[in-house]
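FORM 7B: Structural annotation worksheet

SECTION A. Query
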Amino acid sequence: MTLKATTSLPDARAFLGDAPVMAKRRVAEAGGASDTKQLRVAIVHYWLVSMRGGEKVVEELCRMFPQADIFTLVCNRDRISDFLKTRNIRTSFLQKIPGAQRHYTKMLPLMPFALEQFDLQDYDLVLSSESGPAKGIITRADALHVCYCHSPMRYIWDQFHVYRHGLPWVGRALMSITAPMLRAWDVTTSSRVDVFVANSDYVASRIRRFYDRDSIVIHPPVATDDFAVGKGKGEFYLYAGQLTTYKRPDIAVRACTEAGRKLVVIGEGEQLAYLKSIAGPTVEFLGHQPFNVLRDHLSRCRALLFPGTEDFGILPVEAMASGRPVLAFDAGGARETVSSPQVGFRFGQQTTEALLETMAAFEEVEDDIDPHAIRAHSLKFSSAVFRDRLSGLIEQQLSTHGDRSADVFRRRPG
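SECTION B. Predicted structure
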């Protein structure tokens, strides 16, 4: 049987141009929370190889849009939550490269090519979760693209030299060659985003500096309900997190060693051997620990020591949800979370001496600090607040975007 065309070539082209009509109507009609269920939604995350702050945001996005599909460059299902394992996760061609789940960071020059291979033409709403490359995906012209930016890529922007110095000479040479091209691609693809959402004022300022784009600040979700105020006075200072250079765990280790204060260190990383070499007998290293151990130590510590610069920093909020104060370096997201002496102290110099002075000031008033007031402050950053603010923003943008798309369609000739 032979099929015969029943439309002329011009008519066929017109039909193809009208193909997104139903999608435009879905966007135009999605004016409320219940209406968003009819949208085709894609969540794009740079890589799913652990469960850190960015992945917690992806979980919340999936709860807001249970119909969403997830697109990611590389996924290690053994290292993600049971909840994410139930989602429809689509990976790039990088997933097929041997060792990709461990050495994905070495594939940075290939990531723009891999990202642009994702076909998102069926999706009305695209939510990119950006810290590595994620916002550079190519969407349908009338789709709404909202980028939740945890950070512009540190390793090609303000932390370029820090990361480069930590590589062997071959890596340094390759990074020097590829970084300018990646920066150009990163800036160019910022125009593919309709709305930037920053996780802190600090990140908003970096989005403005690197991309020349405004953004709306919505702090990331913290599972404050998973924590509770501990009983009694804290027993030790606590450092938790990756043991990497830019987080400056050495400041906490040196300060507690010099002051003879007990410090518990939870975490692993390339600085572990060095930190052990400078630590005194009052410092205890526990390595990587499961969540229940971290939660227990957060509830029993005197204070969390946070000497690094983070874009937001979820751990200080988790400590505050446990009723414990935070002693943080006065930079990054800590300026927004450790915002008063009732919840902690900030030190102005990223040095051991500055932390020692802050510890002394804290210990003078330690008995007067109210753990329940600290926890009440942490609730400003809860998952419920995140969902309310982000869903309200998306609904407003869908309404505006839908009107604009519908208007463009009405004006199309013929």
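SECTION C. Observations
The mean pLDDT is 87. The longest strand covers residues 125-130.

SECTION D. Sign-off
Analyst initials: ____
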